[in-house]
Specification:
- The chain is of the alpha+beta class.
- The protein has one domain: Hotdog Thioesterase (Thiol Ester Dehydrase, Chain A, Roll).
- It has helices spanning 3-13, 58-75, and strands spanning 32-33, 39-45, 80-89, 97-109, 112-121, 124-135.
- A six-stranded antiparallel sheet has the order 1-2-4-5-6-3, covered by helices on one side.
- The protein is globular, with a radius of gyration of 15 Å.
Length: 144
């Protein structure tokens, strides 16, 4: 079920700081394709990535949401770059504990994709992301 996701991740992101399995300093996020076509992963927060005392750094939150959306595209055989990223910080994310990341495709046309991602901690929605991605020119059009 995750073969395409793993294949593209290895080809394109093997050294990614977030999901790259070959990056010894990376987070090694493990995204899994879900039945609804979205992806999901978990991340254990540590004080190593806090901003304000006991709060996960906003840049890290943004990067986690972006990684979820990128890997959702990978799961569908799509290689694309983030063109626009909007993050809404709803509630501070504790610098310690586990977060759940989710992402799904909302719309696709020509070379463009709109995705939404969510970050939960203790079943509380703490941040959301929405992005426009542009498919890399080397990929074939999928005309969704």
């Amino acid at each position: 079920m995750n073969t395409l996701l793993n294949q593209i991740q290895q080809e394109e992101h093997s050294n990614c700081i977030l999901c790259g399995q070959n990056n010894e300093k990376g987070l090694k996020l493990d995204f899994m394709l879900q039945e609804d076509g979205g992806v999901e992963a978990y991340f254990r927060c540590t004080k190593d990535v806090e901003g304000y005392r006991n709060i996960l750094h906003g840049g890290v939150v943004s990067a986690l949401l972006d990684a979820a959306m990128t890997n959702c595209l990978f799961a569908h055989g799509i290689r694309a770059l983030t063109a626009d990223l909007k993050v809404r910080f709803l509630v501070p994310v504790d610098a310690e504990g586990i977060v759940q990341l989710r992402a799904r495709i909302q719309r696709a046309w020509a070379r463009f994709y709109i995705l939404k991602s969510e970050l939960f901690q203790n079943d509380v929605l703490k941040a959301t992301g929405q992005s426009i991605f542009v498919r890399l020119a080397k990929d074939k059009p999928d005309d969704k």
